[in-house]
Amino acid sequence: MLKRFITGSLALMLTTGLVQAETLYIQSQKAYLMGAPKFNAGKLLMLKKGDPVESIQRQGNWYQVTSNDSVGWLSKLLLKPHPPLEKVSILARADADFKENVRRRSSSIVTAGAARGLASEERSRIHQQNEANYYALKQLESLQTKEQELTRFSEALQPGGAQ
Amino acid sequence: MTHKYILATLTLSIVLAGCSAQNTIQDNRLRVDQIQARSSASTEDVEAEIQFGRELAARILARYRLSDNKGLQHYLNLVGRTLATNSGRPELTYYFAAIESSEINAYAAPGGYVFITTGAIKQMNDEAELAGVLAHEIAHITEKHIVKSVGIKGADSSAISSFSKLLGAANDPSRIAFSQAIDKALDYLFENGLQAEDEYQSDNTGTLIATQTGYDPSALHRYLERIKSKRTQLAVVNKTHPPFNQRLNQLNQLLTLEGLTTAPELRFAPRFKTNTTNQRG
């Protein structure tokens, strides 16, 4: 009886020591399930964005996971505990707010300086340092790369790809 | 016999309890990461992060002129956006820009804005080194270093959720708080730097992102080793980043831990030279 009790307690203790399984989701376009927690390990299976995997354990920068009855390793960089979000953009709204933004932010910087009790030269210095160039920002945000071009560029980085 | 059995059981229990305590600490850390990861899983929070980053980016662009070399800007975006696909935040659109300066430096603003000086590009030998630096900046964004350091916290919400509230509010105190948060972020970028730990984490995560993408794992290490003695051009880096030798030591540890070695065939020097010729003179 005592033996059975002790054995039962031991089994319980061992079970609670195990890492609790958790569902994680692939965040990159594709991800390879690897045979070992190393970048140069063999590839077992290709997974795609949004695929769920069950974590078994974490080892440094790697998760051991199961997916479609296969057990393997994935870099922590490619996983999150939630499904991948859709692209978020505020540019359309930002465009409409553009002029208002320049006026509002600029005046609030001066108000912020005044609220902190800064002398007028200090306020003027901070204001100058806080100047914002929204025109250059819009120029930057107009830089486009086509999906196809990105795919070609990325493929050239894979073994056998053209440099 | 029974006593021996009980004694052995007790000993094992103590050992297991120790392991369990260790696991609890690790589990707690994991849970904090997971809560942070989940807390950022709302469109509203991401919008707030981008809006804050845009404002910061506009201020960086007031200090430095955007390079008018369109070929170079396009190339930076190809390299950067390829890296970004392996960085775990598909909801962000990343923008990469060369800014005119002889300083050697690069900056990241939340939400996906990355800047690199033309002075830094001149010091590089190949695309893998460029990728290493851009990936370091991407890591600052994915790890939300500035958002966390600005440290606006609500009663029961993450720093970023408080940003949402701040940006949504139309009253003066909120605008003042927003403006002060921008001042603080500028101070991190140009004066006092982030925590040393954040920089080490970005070096490590950046190296992993670049390796995952297909670049020479030793590239960031090679680049830092080459530039570390250029004191004049590194005036800002030296006051905002931990010492180069410590960063190099940390990177060495990562390369050893992951079993990563130098890979000359993954440096893509010809493509880099073609795309940066005008810049490099």
Structure commentary:
- The complex is a heterodimer of chains A (163) and B (281).
- Chain A has five helices and seven strands; from the N terminus they run H-E-E-E-E-E-E-E-H-H-H-H.
- Chain A has helices at residues 2-17, 91-115, 120-129, 134-141, 147-155, and strands spanning 22-26, 30-34, 43-48, 52-59, 62-67, 70-75, 79-80.
- A five-stranded antiparallel beta sheet of chain A has the order 6-5-4-1-7, with no helix packed on it.
- The model of chain A is unreliable at 7-18 and 123-127 (pLDDT under 50).
- Chain B is α+β, with helices and mostly antiparallel strands and 281 residues long.
- Chain B has 13 helices and four strands.
- Chain B has helices spanning 2-39, 43-63, 70-84, 118-122, 127-142, 145-150, 159-168, 172-192, 196-213, 219-227, 235-240, 244-257, 269-280, and strands spanning 65-66, 95-100, 106-109, 113-117.
- A four-stranded mixed beta sheet of chain B has the order 1-2-4-3, sandwiched between helices.
- Chain B is globular, with a radius of gyration of 22 Å.
- Classes of the chains: A alpha+beta (163), B alpha+beta (281).
The description of the largest β-sheet of chain B is: 4 strands, mixed
- Poorly predicted ranges of chain A: 7-18, 123-127
Q: What is the residue-averaged pLDDT of chain B?
A: 83
Dominant shape of chain A: elongated
Task: Kindly name the structural category of chain B.
Answer: alpha+beta
Q: Any descriptors?
A:
heterodimer, A: 163 residues, alpha+beta, 5 helices, 23% strand, B: 281 residues, 68% helix
Brief summary:
With 163 residues, chain A is α+β, with helices and mostly antiparallel strands. Chain A has helices spanning 2-17, 91-115, 120-129, 134-141, 147-155, and strands at residues 22-26, 30-34, 43-48, 52-59, 62-67, 70-75, 79-80. In chain A, helix 2 runs antiparallel to helix 3 (120-129).
